[in-house]
Design a protein that fits this description.
The complex is a heterodimer of chains A (about 280) and B (about 280). Chain A is an all-alpha fold and about 280 residues long. In chain A, strand 1 and strand 2 form a beta hairpin. In chain A, helix 4 packs antiparallel against helix 5 and helix 7 runs antiparallel to helix 8. The longest helix of chain A is centred in the C-terminal third of the chain and has 31 residues. Chain A is about 65% helix and about 0% strand. Chain A is built from 13 helices and 2 strands; from the N terminus they run αααααααααααααββ. In chain A, about 35% of the residues are buried. Chain A folds into 3 domains: about 30 residues; about 180 residues, Serine Threonine Protein Phosphatase 5, Tetratricopeptide repeat; about 70 residues. The two termini of chain B are about 25 Å apart. In chain B, helix 1 crosses helix 7, helix 2 runs parallel beside helix 7 and helix 4 runs parallel beside helix 8. Chain B is built from 13 helices and no strands. With about 280 residues, chain B is mostly helical. The chains are: A mainly alpha (about 280), B mainly alpha (about 280). At the A-B interface, helix 3, helix 4 and helix 6 of A face helix 4, helix 9 and helix 12 of B.
């Protein structure tokens, strides 16, 4: 009887400490949640022949961290930290495709991070020369983010070589490179990526972006129609509605508002990111 | 001088003793069961992957085999000699007209058979899980079954060398903790030695490390077993091509390194004084 009582007391004590501890852990800053990774040589020395698995654990940790924060209002994942974790992961195991895929799906759209993601992907392609996905990502990044159409073309040729079945994308992308139609290029790219995304958080993120880009494309097409009809540029998006080339200004799925910048390009106050709309100041 | 036939009989007898002892050992059975249970979780872990389910499953399975194999190696190899010495069983054996080398080598062969069984059983479990996953999540390049078998074979040789290191240290140590600690240290050192040598050869290494440290690093590289040679995980997981010449050289290196360790062990054990 005494033992059962002791068992109950200690079991209760365990639960009683676990609950507040879980709360404390949940409230830890992002840095603590994603964890700190020592330099690659140190990890390699400590993990002996387990470093491939450790590399995959690090990329999965990034995914869990991202997945747990991305859908919560007011919470933005620390993307710089994710980049550093993925860098470590790929240096541990240069073949780890999950790390490259995650970097491409999540980090490359963030301002300032795309050149670093391109470096990461080029490192990956040097080790995975059979994988058509890496030149596919690189051709898109060079064209869409870095506006380096020569490099984009080089990687596109490699995609065509490695995956002849994807010729529709290669043809389409080449045309967009020529015409500078970056929104349509991004849409074509996302339409190839969405059906193959296995992770729900990443898939939803891509779908929201595709939805936003479709709306931007619709506005861009209305601007072209407006120019044809009135032989001048619209001053604001309202002109497109008043001119009868657009039924109504579409809603930004990120919660922001679309507007025309001083160069006449379609922009949004959300900067195509959840939670950034409140900081947008533009009125249109 | 004992005849070769008697020596062979002694060798076989000690091999049988080592195998029976290993089979009866509950700790070893527990390690195997844990390993097999962990291998059953392979599909659960693998589905978390975003792009390479089969690669994650393979990496996870190989890690379990490597980890469980190492635990089995250390436990069995420690029991071969160190425990016999500590519990003084060896005194009775050595008072009989038998060859000490036959005693040591016979026990080591028993250890090698036990570890081979363990690797085969764990490998078969892993292969079944990977075979099923390959059907569910096919990859463009297919799974490298040949590399899988070759990789497990070389993993087995890592265990043999670690076991021989434990036996060698057991022949000179007075407790079983020292061989265990040194074997674990050399296991990690064996996987890092190549990376250390690479670093020494880089411009940063030449600049940051003094000549004495560089010399020491190189000496350590040549003395320690280079386990990086035996690590074929990239070839298994990602289908990177195997190099036949490199494999042949690695196998010869493994054989000769193991032979050196066993000869040293028999020399040390033959000269050991039992008080």
């Amino acid at each position: 009887m005494k033992r059962v009582l002791l068992l109950l007391v200690f079991a209760l004590l365990t639960v009683a400490t676990s609950v507040p501890l879980t709360k404390i852990r949940d409230n830890k800053p992002a840095e603590a949640r994603l964890g700190f990774f020592p330099p690659v040589p140190v990890i390699k020395a400590l993990t002996a022949d387990q470093y491939q698995f450790v590399s995959q654990v690090i990329s999965l940790q990034c995914l869990f961290y991202f997945g747990s924060l991305v859908e919560q209002p007011g919470q933005r994942p620390d993307l710089q930290r994710i980049y550093r974790a993925l860098y470590t992961s790929t240096r541990l195991d240069p073949y780890n495709m999950d790390a490259y895929y995650f970097a491409q799906s999540v980090l490359t759209w963030e301002p300032g991070l795309s050149p670093r993601v391109v470096e990461l992907l080029e490192y990956g392609f040097a080790h995975r020369p059979w994988d058509w996905y890496l030149p596919f990502f690189l051709s898109f990044d060079y064209a869409y983010f870095l506006k380096d159409y020569n490099k984009a073309g080089e990687y596109l040729a490699k995609v065509a070589q490695l995956k002849p079945e994807i010729d529709w994308y290669v043809t389409l992308a080449s045309r967009y490179f020529y015409e500078g139609g970056s929104t349509a290029l991004a849409l074509a790219y996302l339409k190839e990526m969405i059906p193959t995304a296995r992770n729900e958080a990443i898939k939803r993120r891509m779908m929201t972006r595709a939805e936003a880009l479709e709306k931007i494309l619709k506005i861009e097409q209305a601007i072209v129609a407006y120019r044809k009809r009135f032989r001048r540029d619209p001053k604001e998006l309202g002109d497109l509605v008043n001119g009868g080339v657009l039924d109504l200004i579409p809603e930004d799925p990120y919660g922001g508002s679309f507007y025309l910048d001083k160069d006449g390009r379609v922009r949004t106050t959300s900067k195509l990111a959840h939670g950034a709309a409140s900081s947008g100041t533009h009125k249109n | 001088m004992q005849s070769l036939r008697i020596r062979k009989r002694q060798l076989a007898a000690f091999t049988a003793v080592a195998i029976k002892g290993g089979i009866r050992d509950r700790v070893l059975a527990a390690i195997m069961v844990v390993g097999l249970l962990l291998l059953l979780t392979t599909p659960v872990v693998a589905v978390f992957s975003m792009r390479q389910v089969l690669a994650l499953a393979t990496s996870y399975s190989l890690s379990i085999i490597s980890l469980m194999g190492l635990l089995l190696t250390l436990f069995i190899a420690m029991g071969l000699l160190a425990k016999d010495l500590e519990q003084r069983h060896v005194y009775t054996v050595c008072s009989l007209p038998i060859s000490r080398s036959a005693y040591l080598l016979g026990k080591f062969i028993g250890f090698a058979v036990l570890i081979l069984w363990a690797v085969v059983i764990l490998g078969c479990f892993s292969a079944v899980a990977l075979f099923v996953l390959e059907r569910i999540y096919p990859t463009a390049r297919g799974f490298a079954w040949g590399a899988f078998v070759v990789g497990l074979w070389f993993q087995y040789w890592v265990f043999l060398i670690v076991g021989a290191i434990t036996v060698l240290f057991s022949t000179v140590a007075t407790s079983h903790f020292l061989p265990l600690a040194l074997s674990v240290g050399l296991y990690f050192g064996g996987y890092s030695a190549e990376a250390v040598r690479y670093f020494i050869r880089t411009a940063a290494g030449q600049k940051e490390l003094g000549p004495a440290v560089q010399w020491f690093g190189n000496v350590v590289y040549w003395i320690l077993p280079n386990f990086s040679l035996f690590d074929l995980k990239n070839q298994i997981i990602y289908g990177v091509a195997l190099n036949a010449r490199e494999l042949l050289l690695t196998q010869t290196y493994a054989l000769s390194y193991l032979a050196v360790l066993l000869v040293l062990s028999t020399l040390a054990f033959s000269r050991r004084e039992f008080l």
